[in-house]
Amino acid sequence: MARRTRWLRHATVATSLALGAVVWEVAGHLTTGAFWAPLSATLGSAAELARGGVLLQQGASSLRLYVTGLLLAIAVGAPLGLLLARLPRLRVAFEDYIMMLYATPMVALIPFILSLLGFGFTPKALVVFLFAVFPVLYNTVEGARSIRPELVEVARAFRSNEWELWRDVMIPYTLPFTMTGIRQAIARGLVGMVAAEFFLSPSGLGQMIMMGSQNFDTAGMLAAILVIVLIGVALMDFGRYLENRFAAWRGYTR
Amino acid sequence: MLTSDARIEVSGAGRRFGALEVFRDVNLAVGEREVLAIIGPSGCGKTTLLRCMHGLIPLSGGEIVIEGSRVAGPREGVAMVFQHFGLFPWKTVFHNVAYGLKLAGATQAEIRDKVPRFISLVGLAGFENYYPYQISGGMQQRCGLARALSVEPRVLLMDEPFGAVDAQTREILQFELLRIWEMRPTTMVFVTHSIEEAVLMGDRIVVLKGRPATVHEIVTVDLPRPRTRATLATPRFAGLREHVWNTLMADARRAELEIVR
């Protein structure tokens, strides 16, 4: 029964994707090339770009930017979140800034970053970082704050010192919450990557989209977008996998 | 009092939280391998007193001395079993039991040797790799007990250990604990709100009462050990239970009658 349901599910997904591809293809043939390109042309363009090495080169440039910003966001967001959860005074002092920045559309800060740091890799990585850090920070703080006080009491009863309390209780308890934050950061960081490549010095896949658009090379533009979509989907899946893996003890998986 | 060989001496102990005085002037001594049951109505501060004995909460007045030195914080040789079990949900049974040993500085070899022994002592053999959410409440508390026992404490503090499990499980665990105690007798302070449990477990029963709570009476339980299910059927058990019931309930009944009137 379960196997049959799963088979039905896969069939539905496959049908849906196939239908989407057909709609894409037909829409491409029915409109002018400047507006929309058929799937076949898009894939052809992607294959050509891949053969020429452009796709790999630009993709690698984008990924380098993205991974740098994302890792930085995790490296700063998670420890800072734990620290803020453990030191209430510090949290109260910073809480409002964090909320303000979390609520701010980060795109609005890009001109400011441009005038502050100019072009180059660093300001772009900073943009990705800013897009990605707040979900990590916010979820970590909320997670660490929700720790059951009785678990902290158990740690004290067994004569845990502060470092052991972090190692054995705070960090493992908070990890699934941080993972939720990281999963959100993965998506937001990708937005940050494209925004940085658009609005700061054009580079990577963002530059390919811009150039495709300016040269009326719709197929090339869609090819770059398709690659970003695929990267995003793969990373989201990876994020969900990580989250489930670290949340197994919660007694459920999502 | 058994001052000479007392493991725990509580003298003039009091604790207040702001304006609320929980208990005052509590004087107790718990001897070597003695089981002291503490009973009292909800909110009388028996759990707070136990936490003070462990050094998790400081006293507001008086002092508690364990093995000759004043309690200032949790120490080696004293372990606690919690009503809420306090298991780490991300750790398996094995690693939950190993937790105390690890913090006590045990080597990996010691942990590999000791943990399985204590897991089978509490009847959890075969469940080493289960997570707390995969086992019943009774099994979780067996795990909590194994964790406390594995550090081989000389003083065991039990905070209503069976208060969060169902009635049948509770009965099973009571006799399990008696069996384990016979194998490894230690000084034990057992906080409970069950009169039967206090009589079954204790060598003496401290009745806390009043607001703020004070030691109302100390009842000596002269039931022979080992105690088993048969103990429950003896007239002496029934007599002691009645006695503690009357001590504990006299005020409660009077208060109720006053409301009726």
Can you walk through the features of this model?
The complex is a heterodimer of chains A (254) and B (261). The model of chain A has no long low-confidence stretch (mean pLDDT 89). Chain A contains 10 helices and no strands. In chain A, helix 9 (204-214) packs antiparallel against helix 10. Chain A has helices spanning 2-30, 39-51, 54-86, 88-103, 110-117, 121-145, 149-157, 162-199, 204-214, 218-246. The two termini of chain A are 21 Å apart. With 254 residues, chain A is mainly alpha-helical. With 261 residues, chain B is of the alpha/beta class. The mean pLDDT of chain B is 91. Chain B has a domain at 3-72 and 186-260: 3-Layer(aba) Sandwich (Rossmann fold). The interface between A and B is medium-sized, with 18 and 24 residues.
In short:
The complex is a heterodimer of chains A (254) and B (261). Chain A is 83% helix and 0% strand.
Which assembly state applies to the chains in this document? heterodimer
Shape, principal axes of CA atoms of chain A: globular
- Identify the strand order in the major beta sheet of chain B: 6-7-8-3-9-10
Q: List low-confidence stretches of chain B.
A: none
CATH class of the domain at 3-72 and 186-260 in chain B: Alpha Beta
Describe this protein with a few key phrases:
heterodimer, A: 254 residues, mainly alpha, MetI-like fold, 83% helix, B: 261 residues, alpha/beta, Rossmann fold, six-stranded mixed sheet, four-stranded antiparallel sheet, 7 helices, 38% helix, 25% strand, globular
Topology:
The complex is a heterodimer of chains A (254) and B (261).
Chain A: H1 2-30, H2 39-51, H3 54-86, H4 88-103, H5 110-117, H6 121-145, H7 149-157, H8 162-199, H9 204-214, H10 218-246
Chain B: E1 6-17, E2 20-31, E3 35-39, H1 46-54, E4 61-66, E5 69-70, E6 78-81, H2 93-103, H3 108-121, H4 137-150, E7 155-159, H5 167-183, E8 187-192, H6 195-201, E9 204-209, E10 214-220, H7 235-260
Parallel strand pairs in B: 3-8, 3-9, 6-7, 7-8
Antiparallel strand pairs in B: 1-2, 1-4, 4-5, 9-10
Helix pairs in contact in B: 2-3, 2-4, 3-4, 6-7
